[in-house]
Amino acid sequence: MIRIAHVSDLHYDQSRQLRATIERLVELVADAAPDLLVVTGDLSADGRPEELDEVRSMLRQLKPIRQLVIPGNRDLERSSGPPGEANPLPPDSDLDFFLTLEPALALGLEEDAEADTDSDDRWVSRFGTTEPAFTGRGIAAVGVPSTPKLSGQSLTRAARRLRKSPDAFRVFALHHGLLPVPGRKMREGDVIPRAGDVLSLLCELGVDLVLHGHVHRAHVWRIADSRGEILVASAGALVNDGRLDASFLEIVVDGPFVEISRRSVATGRASSLYSSDGLPSPEVREARAVARSR
Ligand SMILES: [Fe+2]
To answer: Other CB atoms closer than 10 Å to residue 226's CB: what's the count?
Structure first.
């Protein structure tokens, strides 16, 4: 059995309220002791070094748990917008080129030179890399940065890493979305450019699960094409934006079965978002029974 926790959009601004929320989250994740914790960006409210340092030290309390931490737009670009507001993404360049060149990802994947920017340096000095990877416990997970854009080079490196573990449960993590989600009026930049082509590539790579944040909605889509199916899961946010309570996702993989739950940070209660056994979750069955009895 594989267990993964997925946290996103902490938006830590050094407020006492958010610090308490993150400390509670750390307790819940420590108790759950998943095989892997994935954090999909926007750890900080404004990318300030003090914010990133404090979040890093809070996550370090979970040191025995393996972590895959990637940056969000707020961590790499200064923003003064309200929580969750996207910075517009610049037009694609090398991703377009990459997808045109190699729609099936079959070319010899040559390593590209790393080209760190100042904002990347600020992140890398604290979290090691903007493209983390984890292999072990039956999982092959890769993370890619999507700020200012998802690059073809990042995809190439992710593909190479995933291909090294053909039998593992494959996880692809990024900050921005690949699909719209219910309950959110989508903003420009929520979904990455060429998301359809990226999803097609992930199908080609046999990715089982995409984890993303940015949209502040806990949701799971199951999509499929002729080559297979992918679950695309987004985590809620930890920031209190006045509409939703803080939450994170818990994923349990048991052979061919996958169960994904949203867990409230305030109450610790879990509610099922998705179950691959083909049966509705207990919550859905109960809601249907209530609706029928009216
Ligand atoms: Fe974001």
So the answer is: 5
